[in-house]
C-alpha cells in the first residue's frame, strides 16, 4: 500500500496537472499568431520601426503560395587531391621497379642478394624522392603562372554606400500616433514603393477600431466590410472555435498609442501598406453561459504591439489583409 506521503504527492501532482490544463485552455481561447497575406512580401520580414524595433514574427498561415526556394548553401568544392607517393608518374615507376624485382626473385635471380636488395630499395627511394620533388616544383610553377598573369587585370573592388532606413514620405504627416517608418524594405521585382496620404493613415486608425470591435461583437458582416476574404476565414474560424468552447472574446475601449509605417508598395493594380501599431484595449474572454471572466482583466487595459497590413485595389477602400505579432 502507498504511504500517506506518497498518496499526498500523487494527489498534488494530479491537481497541478488539471490546473495546468485549465490554464492552458483559457490562455489559448484567443490564439492570435501571424496570419494573412502581404502580396509578394508575405514571407518577408517587415522593416523595423520605432514602434516595433524588434524583428517581427513571420506569417504562419497564408493562402499566398510560398514560391521562394530556400536553396542550401553551396559547399565549397574540394580541390584536386594531391597524388600520393605511390600515385602518378613516380608511383608508376616505383611499382614497375618492385614488380621487376619480384619477377626476378621468382625466376631465381632474386634481388642480387641481401646487399643487392638494400641497394635496390635505396635507389628506388632516391629515384622516387627526386620524382616527387620534380612534380611538386612543376605544380607550383603552373599554379603561380595564371595567378601572376591575372593579377594586373583583376578589377578593383567597389563599395556602394547605401542609406538604409530612410523615412518614407508618410513620416511628414503629423497625425497623432503616426510617425515616420523605417521604410525601404526589400521590394520584389514586380512591386514599387508608393507614398501614403493623410486620408490613408486615418483609414488605418479607423480600421484598427472597426476590426477589433466587430470581432468582439462577433459581427461577421462588419468583418467582411473591414478585412479581406482570407482574413474573414481566419477570424471566423477563431470565433467558431471560441463558441465551441463556450467562450466569448470581448474587445473594447481601443486606443491607439503609437504607430508608424513600415513599408508601402504597389503590385500591379493593388496597393499594400504595413503599419506598426501599439494600442491598448480591454480584452477579456468570458464564459457564454455565466459571463464569468476566464482570461484578461476587464478593469485594466492591456497594451499590444502588432503589424497590420492593409490592401486596396484600384483606389477602393483599404481592408486589413494580414496581422503579424511584433
Overview of this protein structure:
- With 326 residues, the chain is of the alpha+beta class.
- The chain has 2 domains: 33-61 and 169-325, Nuclear Transport Factor 2, Chain: A; 88-137.
- Helices cover 38% and strands 21% of the residues.
- The protein contains 6 helices and 8 strands; from the N terminus they run αβααββαααβββββ.
- Strands 1, 2, 3, 4, 5, 6, 7 and 8 form an 8-stranded mixed beta sheet that branches.
List the main descriptive attributes of the protein structure presented here.
326 residues, alpha+beta, Nuclear Transport Factor 2, Chain: A, 2 domains, eight-stranded mixed β-sheet, 6 helices, 8 strands, 38% helix
Give a quick rundown of the structure.
With 326 residues, the chain is an alpha+beta fold.
Q: What's the topology here?
A:
Layout (H helix, E strand, L loop, with lengths): L3 H24 L7 E2 L51 H19 L6 H39 L26 E2 L11 E3 L4 H20 L2 H7 L2 H16 L2 E21 L2 E18 L5 E3 L6 E12 L5 E7 L1
Parallel strand pairs: 2-4
Antiparallel strand pairs: 1-8, 3-4, 4-5, 5-6, 5-7, 7-8
Distance N terminus to C terminus?
A: 54 Å
Order of helices and strands: HEHHEEHHHEEEEE
Overall number of strands:
8
Q: Could you name the CATH topology of the largest domain?
A: Nuclear Transport Factor 2, Chain: A
Major sheet characteristics: 8 strands, mixed
Judging by the overall fold, what is the CATH architecture of the largest domain?
A: Roll
Percent strand: 15-25%
Q: What is the residue-mean pLDDT, rounded to a whole number? A: 72
Rg (CA only): 37 Å
Specify the overall morphology. elongated
Give the proportion of residues in helices: 25-40%
- State the CATH class of the largest domain: Alpha Beta
Note the total helix count: 6
Structural class label:
alpha+beta
Amino acid at each position: 500500500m502507498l504511504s500517506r506521503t506518497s498518496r499526498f504527492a500523487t494527489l498534488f501532482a494530479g491537481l497541478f496537472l488539471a490546473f495546468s490544463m485549465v490554464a492552458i485552455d483559457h490562455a489559448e481561447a484567443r490564439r492570435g499568431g501571424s496570419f494573412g497575406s502581404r502580396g509578394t512580401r508575405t514571407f518577408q520580414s517587415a522593416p523595423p520601426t520605432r514602434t516595433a524595433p524588434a524583428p517581427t514574427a513571420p506569417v504562419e498561415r497564408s493562402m499566398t503560395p510560398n514560391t521562394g526556394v530556400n536553396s542550401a548553401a553551396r559547399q565549397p568544392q574540394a580541390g584536386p587531391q594531391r597524388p600520393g607517393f605511390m600515385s602518378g608518374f613516380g608511383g608508376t615507376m616505383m611499382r614497375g621497379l618492385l614488380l621487376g624485382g619480384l619477377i626476378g626473385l621468382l625466376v631465381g635471380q632474386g634481388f642480387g642478394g641481401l646487399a643487392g636488395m638494400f641497394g635496390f630499395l635505396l635507389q628506388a627511394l632516391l629515384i622516387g624522392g627526386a620524382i616527387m620533388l620534380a612534380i611538386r616544383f612543376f605544380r607550383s610553377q603552373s599554379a603561380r603562372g595564371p595567378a601572376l598573369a591575372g593579377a594586373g587585370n583583376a578589377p578593383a573592388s567597389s563599395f556602394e554606400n547605401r542609406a538604409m532606413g530612410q523615412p518614407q514620405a508618410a513620416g511628414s504627416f503629423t497625425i497623432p500616433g503616426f510617425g515616420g517608418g523605417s521604410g525601404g524594405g526589400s521590394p520584389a521585382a514586380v512591386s514599387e514603393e508608393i507614398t501614403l496620404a493623410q486620408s490613408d493613415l486615418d483609414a488605418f486608425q479607423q480600421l484598427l477600431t472597426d476590426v477589433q470591435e466587430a470581432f468582439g461583437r462577433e459581427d461577421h458582416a462588419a468583418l467582411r466590410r473591414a478585412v479581406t476574404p482570407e482574413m474573414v476565414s481566419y477570424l471566423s474560424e477563431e470565433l467558431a472555435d471560441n463558441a465551441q468552447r463556450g467562450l466569448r472574446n470581448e474587445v473594447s475601449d481601443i486606443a491607439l498609442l503609437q504607430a508608424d509605417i513600415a513599408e508601402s508598395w504597389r503590385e500591379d493594380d493593388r496597393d499594400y501598406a504595413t503599419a506598426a501599431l501599439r494600442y491598448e484595449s480591454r480584452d477579456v474572454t468570458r464564459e457564454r453561459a455565466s459571463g464569468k471572466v476566464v482570461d484578461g482583466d476587464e478593469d485594466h487595459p492591456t497594451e499590444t504591439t502588432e503589424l497590420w497590413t492593409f490592401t486596396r485595389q484600384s483606389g477602393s477602400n483599404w481592408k486589413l489583409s494580414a496581422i503579424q505579432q511584433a
